[in-house]
Automatic annotation (TrEMBL):
Example GO BP: negative regulation of interleukin-1 beta production
Family of this protein: Belongs to the GLTP family.
Keyword Transmembrane: no
The UniProt record lists the keyword Ion transport: no
Protein name from the UniProt record: Ceramide-1-phosphate transfer protein
Keyword line: Cell membrane, Cytoplasm, Endosome, Golgi apparatus, Lipid transport, Lipid-binding, Membrane, Nucleus, Transport
Top-rank taxon: Eukaryota
Lineage of source species: Eukaryota, Metazoa, Chordata, Craniata, Vertebrata
Compartment annotation: Cell membrane; Cytoplasm, Cytosol; Endosome membrane; Golgi apparatus, trans-Golgi network membrane
Principal place of residence: membrane
Length: 210
């Protein structure tokens, strides 16, 4: 059992599992709680990752403000959010730095990194370097959306990552083999959240929101 406040992959998995409904709708609330779990984990890795967790916190908070706001009913699902924000006109949407769509898009891109990273951890060997797994995953996903200084800072921070075994241990699900099994269970849920968001945003030409 995970200590109170500690990271537990199980909780994150449960949250992401609850994000996609049978009708393939993406629910925001469980997604945000999954993100909080990941952020808590990132924060436990130390100050080197502070600039990353700060940005993730800011983005999750933007989404929570939308959900609590006057138009909160439109922020139940990804689909209702897209419909609502597009109804105010694409120009208006493109001009808003705190729109739900552009904020979700940033988190969505980060989810691809997460998917690749977890897959790398799962299939890695005992002595695989997590910094290499992380850098490869980053270069294949988020890096192309980041300017040079962010790429540089991120790649430097990755060097401070703990070993693969230490990672599997902090997942708080038992011995490494069990942690690997749970990663195998978690990844398809994350893929499914990624997949429905990608489809929805592509359909409405929202994948390049500035
Ligand atoms: C474990 C190591 C974590 C590595 C995280 C990789 C992501 C690197 C991202 C670097 C972001 C730098 C900060 C600023 C970025 C923004 O410019 C950018 C664009 O936003 P905007 O408003 O300027 O257009 N923001 C983003 O791209 C969003 C980045 C969000 C990153 C969220 C990462 C959350 C990670 C959680 C750690 C999960 C590890 C799970 C392992 C579980 C297994 C034990």
């Amino acid at each position: 059992m995970a200590a109170a406040g500690a990271f537990s992959l199980r909780e994150v998995l449960d949250a992401f599992r609850g994000c996609v409904t049978e009708r393939r709708e993406g629910l925001l609330e469980p997604c945000l709680s999954g993100w909080w779990g990941l952020i808590r984990f990132l924060q436990s890795l130390g100050a080197v990752f502070g600039f990353i967790s700060k940005d993730a916190v800011a983005k999750v908070q933007i989404m929570e403000r939308h959900r609590r706001g006057e138009q909160g009913q439109h922020y139940e699902s990804l689909q209702s959010m897209v419909e609502f924000e597009l109804s105010r006109g694409p120009a208006e949407l493109r001009g808003r730095p705190d729109s739900g769509c552009r904020t979700v898009l940033r988190l969505h891109r980060a989810l691809l990194w997460l998917q690749l990273f977890l897959e790398g951890l799962r299939t890695g060997h005992r002595d695989s370097r997590t910094s290499t797994i992380c850098t490869d995953s980053y270069n294949a996903s988020l890096a192309k959306h980041h300017p040079w200084v962010v790429r540089k800072a991120a790649t430097l921070a990755f060097c401070a990552l703990p070993s693969r075994d230490a990672f599997l241990e902090v997942m708080n699900v038992g011995p490494p083999e069990q942690a690997v099994d749970m990663l195998g269970e978690a990844i398809p849920y994350i893929q499914s959240v990624y997949g429905i968001t990608q489809e929805l945003f592509a359909q409405h030409s929202l994948l390049d929101l500035p």
